[in-house]
């Protein structure tokens, strides 16, 4: 009898949805798989040598440790949460086709009350600043905060943490005007409220909307099983975005954004870095042939540093 592949997942609704999706893809190809629920870090034996190997991602650490300890065979992550350097002994075995990469604003109350104030800064006039608007917007993301304050410097940003269910509940019970979420996270579990707006002007986190599956290095069984649903275009685009992030300095706690998209055999890349308080932004845009895109992220990072991004990087490093 075939031994099922053990899929590690956190217990949040979104994490379980992602792991179940991978389970179904494996089963579609005749491969047995089962979910293994992994508790938070405090419930796991955190062996020091594993941390020395570089298990650092705050949202991925529990699963990575379980994987390296042999408690599970593969782990499923929101790719934007995965550190750009995987821990020693672990490899990427699949990237699923990307869903929406967009950030959205979930409005607390009537949509018109907020959208009428935000619409003054349109895509045709993106630098228009609202002098009288004093909206209170919640997010725990430094990247989202920086981009929002660059566009709306008079707004107030409040901290909002927790899984998507917890954050939606907090918004509903608050006096905030709204909060920023990743569209894909809410859409995947059918929780996107009607009172929400696509933030088409906001550049996403590198790899936002993509799901990564990892396995132990040398585990050919799991690697080959996951290759059945590996999406090469998404893998290329997210690698470019993550190369950009890594070359600049970054992790998920830095205000660095990137998006690569494939169209007509070309890769179109946009990236930016924004001061934490929103006062400065440097951005870059480039288009190359797919055959020439391997180093696009690193090249874009070098260019953005030369065009004024280094001053922002230095200010962030100094603040830390």
Summarize the structure.
The chain has 320 residues and is of the alpha/beta class.
Overview of the molecule:
The protein is an alpha/beta fold and about 325 residues long. It folds into three domains: about 5-100 and about 210-230, D-Maltodextrin-Binding Protein, domain 2 (3-Layer(aba) Sandwich); about 105-200, D-Maltodextrin-Binding Protein, domain 2; about 245-320, Porphobilinogen deaminase, C-terminal domain (Double Stranded RNA Binding Domain). The chain contains ten helices and 13 strands. The chain has helices spanning about 15-30, 50, 60-70, 110-120, 140-150, 165-170, 185-190, 220-225, 230-250, 295-320, and strands at about 5-10, 35, 75-80, 90-95, 105, 135-140, 155-160, 180, 195-200, 210-215, 255-265, 265-275, 280-290. Strands 2-1-3-10-4 form a five-stranded mixed sheet, with helices on both faces. A five-stranded mixed sheet has the order 7-6-8-5-9, with helices on both faces. The protein has a three-stranded antiparallel sheet with strand order 11-12-13. Helix 9 (about 230-250) packs parallel to helix 10 (about 295-320). The chain is globular and about 70 Å long. The N and C termini lie far apart (about 55 Å). The model is unreliable at about 40-55 (pLDDT under 50). Tetrapolymerization of the monopyrrole PBG into the hydroxymethylbilane pre-uroporphyrinogen in several discrete steps.
């Amino acid at each position: 009898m075939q031994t099922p592949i053990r899929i590690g997942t956190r217990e949040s609704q979104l994490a379980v949805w992602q792991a179940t999706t991978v389970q179904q893809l494996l089963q579609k190809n005749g491969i047995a798989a089962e979910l293994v629920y992994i508790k938070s870090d405090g419930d796991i034996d955190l062996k020091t040598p594993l941390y020395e190997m570089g298990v650092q991602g705050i949202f991925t650490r529990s699963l990575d440790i379980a994987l390296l300890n042999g408690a599970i065979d593969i782990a499923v992550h929101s790719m934007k949460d995965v550190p750009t350097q995987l821990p020693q002994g672990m490899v990427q075995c699949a990237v699923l086709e990307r869903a929406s990469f967009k950030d959205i604003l979930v409005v607390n109350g009537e949509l018109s009350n907020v959208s009428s104030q935000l619409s003054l800064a349109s895509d045709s006039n993106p630098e228009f600043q609202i002098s009288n608007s004093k909206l209170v917007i919640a997010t725990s993301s430094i990247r989202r905060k920086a981009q929002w304050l660059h566009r709306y410097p008079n707004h107030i940003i409040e901290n909002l943490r927790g899984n998507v269910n917890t954050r939606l509940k907090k918004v509903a019970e608050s006096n905030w005007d709204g909060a920023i979420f990743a569209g894909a996270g809410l859409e995947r579990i059918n929780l996107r409220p009607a009172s929400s707006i696509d933030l088409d002007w906001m550049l996403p986190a590198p790899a936002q909307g993509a799901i990564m599956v990892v396995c132990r290095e040398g585990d050919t069984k799991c690697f080959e099983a996951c290759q059945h649903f590996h999406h090469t275009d998404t893998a290329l685009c997210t690698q470019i975005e993550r190369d950009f992030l890594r070359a600049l300095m970054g992790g998920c706690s830095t205000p660095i954004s990137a998006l690569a998209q494939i169209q007509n055999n070309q890769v179109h890349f946009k990236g930016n870095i924004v001061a934490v308080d929103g006062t400065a932004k440097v951005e870059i845009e480039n288009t190359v042939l797919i055959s020439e895109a391997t180093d696009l992220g690193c090249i874009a990072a070098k260019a953005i540093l030369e065009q004024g991004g280094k001053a922002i990087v230095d200010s962030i490093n100094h603040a830390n």
